[in-house]
Specification:
four-stranded parallel sheet, binds flavin-adenine dinucleotide, alpha/beta, 8 helices, elongated
Length: about 250
């Protein structure tokens, strides 16, 4: 491990791969270290919804960042397609958040009120309007929020495109290599210790998803990142009867 890049990125999920390629693009020598295979953890499991409004229960800087990020997605995936030939199947049909019971209606109304009062472009649809948009959806749906700017993407294709783009931009890609510690001189991080040896760099970016807190804890930095169990079921569909992502109330 004799290399001395400008920058090491720890973690080859969607975040680490994106950061590595963008920084390589501005001329930095970047090494990306992944303990397993690229995208093999949360990034491959995701459903691909690009829906910040769905994720939050109140406004704040993280939601603002999610909205800004969503606005940049269309251009970003176009650039990726030009660079790699991979179409990541970004769908901009919007998202329907539905309510079928009294309790869900109350929850939906609350969401609608704060999102509307913050100026987000959303619409409250009646059962008839929902049926017009999605005729195959249950008639038990009483109301829905239609969010036209939220989207979804094929995250598996996105990962594939990001790996190809990283290769094209000469990011030094290491898989099956685990970072077991950070090297530091006083308060300055100077590199990483891996199960295959040490590597020095001017900067180290920790993009290791659910493992981030473990790595940073070693150097006295505590971040409130912890794993949350997520499950997904993928089903085949002979013909796709739905044209929007349909989202309901979860227990979260
Ligand atoms: C079932 C499910 C569905 C989801 N659906 C959505 C959705 O629809 N929309 C959405 O926006 N988000 C969704 N998410 C969340 C989304 O998947 C994550 O927010 C996103 O993938 C995080 O990307 P990441 O690169 O930060 O993390 P990861 O993809 O987990 O990447 C981190 C990488 O770091 C590596 N790593 C960790 N420690 C080390 C180490 N010490 N040395 C080297 N490498 C290390 C890991 O192996 C991993 O590959 C979903 C998640 C799950 C589980």
């Amino acid at each position: 491990m004799k290399r001395c890049p400008d920058l090491i990125v720890i973690g080859g999920g969607i975040i680490g791969l994106s950061i590595a390629t963008e920084l390589a693009n501005v001329g930095l020598a970047v090494t990306l270290i992944e303990q397993g295979v690229f995208g093999g953890e949360a990034s491959v499991a995701a459903a691909g919804m690009l829906a910040p409004l769905k994720e939050f229960t109140k406004p704040g800087p993280l939601l603002d960042m999610g909205i800004r990020s969503l606005q940049m997605y269309e251009n970003w995936v176009l650039e990726l397609k030009e660079a790699t030939g991979i179409d990541c199947q970004l769908s901009t049909a919007g998202i329907l958040t539905v309510a079928m019971t009294d309790m869900e209606e109350e929850w939906l109304q609350e969401r609608y009120q704060w999102q509307k009062s913050e100026g987000y472009d959303i619409q409250l649809l009646s059962t008839e309007e929902v049926q017009e948009r999605e005729p195959h959806l249950s008639k038990m749906v009483r109301q829905a929020i239609y969010s036209p700017h939220e989207a979804d993407i094929n995250n598996r294709l996105l990962l594939k495109a990001l790996v190809i783009q990283a290769e094209k931009r000469n990011v030094h890609l290491l898989q099956n290599t685990t970072v077991i510690g950070l090297k530091h001189a006083g308060k300055k991080i100077t590199g990483v210790v891996t199960d295959k040896g040490e590597m020095e760099a001017d900067h180290v970016i920790v993009a290791s998803g659910a493992w981030t807190a473990d790595i940073l804890h070693q150097v006295g930095v505590d971040v409130p990142v912890y794993p949350v169990r997520g499950q997904i079921a993928a089903v085949d569909s002979i013909h796709l009867p739905l044209s929007h992502v349909v989202f309901g109330k979860t227990g979260i």
